[in-house]
Write a structure and sequence with these properties.
mainly alpha, flat
Amino acid sequence: MEKKVSDWAKENKTKLEKLCEPTIATHTHKIAKREISKWLNKIKEIKKYFSK
């Protein structure tokens, strides 16, 4: 799974860099960061659930 994500990131590197550009894209970047943190929190909850 992690390998696929890194491959995707390499392929979309320029797209991701454009998203991070401090223009209109900062808004979408903030939204993306918020979504990523939501997913990370969900993953943490799932890990806690299975570690019991």
